[in-house]
Amino acid sequence: MLRRTFISLVIFCGALAASDHPPLVTAVDSIGLTVSDLDRSVDFYSNVLSFKKVSETEVDGPEYEHLEGVFGLRMRTARMRLGNEFIELTEFLAPRGRPAPVDAKANDRWFQHIAIITSDMDRAYKWLRANRVQHASSGPQRLPDWNKNAGGIRAFYFRDPDGHFLEILAFPPDKGNRKWHVAPGGPKNDKLFLGIDHTAIVISDTDASLGFYRDVLGLQVAGQSENYGPEQERLNNVFGARLRITSLRTAAGPGVEFLEYLTPSDGRPYPLEEKANDLIHWQTKFLGTNVADAARDLQKFRSTFISTGVVELTDAESGVRNSIVVRDPDGHPIQLVQQ
After folding, report:
1. For residue 193, what are the β-bridge partners?
2. Residue 168 burial class via C-beta count within 10 angstroms: exposed 0-12, middle 13-18, buried 19 and up
3. Could you report the per-residue pLDDT of 304-327, keeping only the tens digit for each?
4. Where in the chain are the domains?
5. Angstrom distance (rounded) from CA 194 to CA 28
6. Rounded distance, CA 68 to CA 151, Å?
């Protein structure tokens, strides 16, 4: 029975990929994370990482309960901007969720982070040290030149006040989006933190995740590499780390990066009982043209729905917008919102 189900999903994904079916999503709107104290988190992301708060809302009611799968909720959300990219920080005033495990590691499959581009890795690291951030890497790492697709990239993992993993990233001139580089002869960018290149998620099987994000949602593969060695181990703080990395993008917004740990294989699975008010919760928000159609395709794909179905949300600026929240094959929540 399981084999028959797997074959039917492969056939469904192949039919979508081979057809003229338009992408279900058109852009990554924002990356959301649950925090324990919104004011503290806004202060951290503003004063340490240069994000700007663009709005704050406080909501409750049945439509949000049906969307997030949390009964009796009341939540505050701050939308924060860095460059042209956005994050959304959400504090659940009620009910409070569970704290994050103190022993969380970068190869656990609930891992997710945002990669923040810096114009100067050395200066950024000194700034983070001065602000006493918690290290997740031993220090900034430069990936070796033998790695054709990643050589020369410098990166550092650290944590926010709730323990969420974050990354600062610096691309060499021959890598990364053009917008992260100063044009020849152009003025030097004096901003230390420039924007968000991607959000990274740990997955168990790249092919299964491609079946969801590429073949069903419509993201495009932008790059691949296999990273290993002492620099990668110290970046992730995982001994023996060997990763298959796949980058995907939509037409706009940050990318989505798969981190499949080929070794070690002891990363823990996404907790089945996880809720939106738990502090391990991240939620990537995608924009789409027709959420009702997307919901039907995701039901055919046998996706796990967090929302009770398509939920109508009243937006002060855009009016009524349809939205759903589902889980990817490893349990990472994603939200689709109608443009």
Report:
1. 118
2. buried
3. 999 999 999 887 655 668 999 999
4. 25-282
5. 17
6. 40
Residue 225: count of CB within 10 angstroms of its CB = 16
Contact assessment for residue 311 and residue 67, using Cβ atoms and an 8 Å cutoff? yes
Task: Tell me the C-alpha to C-alpha distance, in Å, between residue 32 and each of 83, 89, 216.
Answer: 16, 6, 22
Question: CA-to-CA distance for 112 and 166, rounded, in angstroms?
Answer: 8
- Asked if 107 contacts 202 with a C-beta cutoff of 8 angstroms, the reply is yes
For the entire predicted model, the pTM comes to: 0.92
Residues found in the chain: 339
Q: What is the pLDDT of residue 319?
A: 63
Non-local (6+) Cβ contacts of 56 within 8 A are 76, 77, 78, 79
Residue 120 has pLDDT above 60, yes or no: yes
Q: CA-CA distance, 232 to 228, in Å (whole number)?
A: 5
With CA atoms as reference, report the closest residue to 27 among 236, 278, 263, 284. Answer: 284
Q: Within 151-254, where are the H helices?
A: 206-212, 230-236
With H, G, I as helix, E, B as strand and everything else as coil, classify residue 256: strand
Q: How far apart are CA 251 and CA 248, in angstroms?
A: 10
- What is the residue whose two structure tokens read 């395709």? 297
DSSP string, 3-32: HHHHHHHHHHHHHHHHS-PPPS--EEEEEE
CATH superfamily of the domain spanning 25-282: 2,3-Dihydroxybiphenyl 1,2-Dioxygenase, domain 1 (3.10.180.10)
Q: From residue 116, how far is each of 67, 155, 201, 292 by CA, in Å?
A: 29, 10, 15, 33
Task: Give the residue from 24, 15, 6, 12 showing the smallest Cα distance to 286.
Answer: 24
CB 7 within 8 A of CB 65: no
Rg (CA), the chain: 19
- Is residue 165 within 8 A of residue 159, CB to CB? The reply is yes
Q: How far is CA 301 from CA 6, 213, 280, in A?
A: 10, 11, 25
